[in-house]
Amino acid sequence: MKLNLLALLPFAAAAAQVARAAATPIRRDDWPHGPFYTSGNQIKNANNESVIFVGTNWPGSGESMIPEGIEWRSIADIVSMMKYVGYNFVRHTYAIQMIDQIYENSGTDITVQSALLYALGEENGTKTMEMINKNNPQITNSTTRLEVLSMIAEEEAKQGILMHLDNHISRAIWCCSHDDGNAWFDDMDFNISNWHRGHRYMANWAKNHTNIVSMSLRNELRKSAVKQNLEYNWKTWWGNVSAAAENIHATNPDLLITISGLDYDIDLSALTTQANLLTAPYVNTDMDYPADASSLPEEYAKIEETSFGKAKKAVLEIHAYKQSTYYEDHLEDCDAIQAGLYRFGFNALGESARPEGCTNSTNFSDPYACPPAKLTLPTLLTEFGDAQDAGFANVTMQKCLRDFTTKNKIGWAHWSLAGSYRIRQGLMFNNDTWGLTTPTWDAFQSPETVDDYFRPWIRDMGTTNLEL
């Protein structure tokens, strides 16, 4: 196991200051009333008001490292589409490679034009640049990638929407698989030092935008099929994610930090139940447990002992897809789906979130077992999704997720906004039926799903204090 400890610095005074501010919030009249903090299972703003995130994912971690869709519509139009649905939160994905290139370029970001030519080739890159400039005249050949992201942040702030920075991947490609070299710490393309450096860069960058109140650590950690000697277990996971969270918190103590789990982020159970990291159960049996675990001192993931935990900045995040391990075996069983959600991490919300179909079993293989958590934290559903068509509302998985999140006021962000990608898995102008928009981003792919499913769902969630 490799840990990068360069960011583990003594920031107790800063943490204590933030904790005091959380205990006695200073009333702020300027939206979004930050910084945010956690209180039990809720996220609160500086006015001590609970805030529920509801939104979508806006991919920007593909080969060009530029948010998708701006070649088809203006930034303002795209944000207005999200505002119409009712979103107050957008999870923006980025690649660490973007920051690596900035350092390789003597601290200067790459222009949009250069990024497009590199990713798409001269003909398609030139054509795409012309399309972007036509729909967004403020983006010229000299505009950089992060300047575009700033334009988006400013427009989202103008329309009352929060920007969440999500480190999706290290090498900019379509995510995610076991064999993409980005799966696990120290994988072929997952350089831990560069990961920490990228976090610091983006956490500093976020200080320029008041609507950025949160930031993630990593998307969908998973076992590597490329470097099979890496230790895939809870101990390695906690050592690395806690170091990364301390690194971000030391850089920008105002940010909430979302923590993702194992097996494509469906499992955080060892953390929430405070199980011994050396022997804790796991949804997938392919775990590298220490051979002598029974003779070793027990180890635990104790968020309450970290600087970011003491400052009330830790938030959990979980994904749930039909093809995910566990869920793929229970697609028409809503009780099992919701029990799995609870067992794998939403038990951190407390006993009130315990689904009706749960049993008292402690057997991890029982699909209805719902062990209680030993800590309380806000937990978000930051990825789920399906084809955006008239049948979306009838998919059992989606109905169960809506029911579970509405009852428990769980923040969520579906995958995704993008009806097309300028390049994905080697295919130029790749259309995606799971995207909220049409391939040309000029309308919703399924207006029926937006008007009859997402908008009523959001109204039922009772979002707080983010409407301008």
From TrEMBL:
From which lineage does this chain's organism come? Eukaryota, Fungi, Dikarya, Basidiomycota, Ustilaginomycotina
Q: Where is the signal peptide?
A: 1-23
Q: What is this protein called?
A: Glycoside hydrolase
Native species of this protein? Kalmanozyma brasiliensis (strain GHG001)
Q: Which UniProt keywords apply?
A: Hydrolase, Signal
Q: What's a Gene Ontology MF term here?
A: hydrolase activity
